[in-house]
Specification:
Blueprint: H1 26-41, E1 46-48, E2 58-61, E3 73-83, E4 87-92, E5 102-107, E6 109-115, E7 121-127, H2 128-141, H3 152-165
Antiparallel strand pairs: 1-2, 2-3, 3-6, 4-5, 6-7
The structure holds zinc ion.
Length: about 170
C-alpha cells in the first residue's frame, strides 16, 4: 500500500491532458492500486491520474463505499459513448479543491467504455452518483475542473471565496 500526494488547485498538472495507456503491466496495476488506497484514505469517491501527478488516462472510483461495502472500479482509457439529454444539479467536491463544494449540472446517465487493469474492455450504462463521478473524473483527464463548469455569476462568487481563503 502506498499513499500518493494529491495535487491541489492551481497546480498546472491539473490542466494537462492525460495520454492513453497502452501498457497493462505491473506498473499500471500498481499505480491503480495506489490510487485506490489514496482515494479511500483521503477519503474520496474518485481520483484521476493528473491529481496524483501522472498524465495517464485512468481514474479510480467507488461511489458507495462510505455507505456500504467497497466496490472499487479502475477505469483506464475511459470514453463516454453517449449521454442522456436529461440533466440534474448536485453538489460535487474535488480532492484537489478542498473546502469548495460546488453545484454542478451534468447528464444523469452516461454509457461509459473503459479498460480494467488487465486491459479487458467493459461498457456499462451508469446513472446517478456513478454517472456523475465518472464524468467528474473523466473531466480531470482532459484538464477540466468543476470550476470550469460554473456559469459566470457562480464563477465570480467562487473567485471571491478563493481570495478570502487565500488561494489563487
Ligand atoms: Zn476532482
Amino acid at each position: 500500500m502506498a499513499l500518493l500526494p494529491i495535487l491541489r488547485y492551481p497546480s498546472p498538472m491539473l490542466r494537462r491532458v492525460a495520454l492513453p495507456v497502452d501498457d497493462f503491466g505491473h506498473a499500471v496495476r500498481t499505480l491503480a492500486a495506489d490510487m485506490l488506497d489514496t482515494m479511500y484514505a483521503a477519503p474520496g469517491r474518485g481520483l484521476a491520474g493528473p491529481q496524483v501527478g501522472t498524465l495517464r488516462r485512468l481514474f479510480v472510483m467507488d461511489v458507495g463505499w462510505k455507505e456500504g461495502a467497497r466496490a472499487p472500479m479502475v477505469c483506464i482509457n475511459p470514453e463516454i459513448l453517449g449521454a442522456s439529454g436529461r440533466t440534474d444539479h448536485a453538489i460535487e467536491g474535488c480532492l484537489s479543491i478542498p473546502g469548495m463544494p460546488l453545484e454542478i449540472e451534468r447528464p444523469v446517465e452516461i454509457t461509459l467504455r473503459w479498460q480494467d487493469a488487465e486491459g479487458a474492455e467493459h461498457t456499462r450504462t451508469l446513472t446517478g452518483a456513478a454517472a456523475r463521478c465518472a464524468q467528474h473524473e473523466l473531466d480531470h483527464l482532459n484538464g477540466r475542473l468543476i470550476l470550469d463548469l460554473l456559469d459566470e455569476s457562480a464563477r465570480h462568487a467562487v473567485a471571491q471565496r478563493m481570495i478570502a481563503m487565500g488561494c489563487g
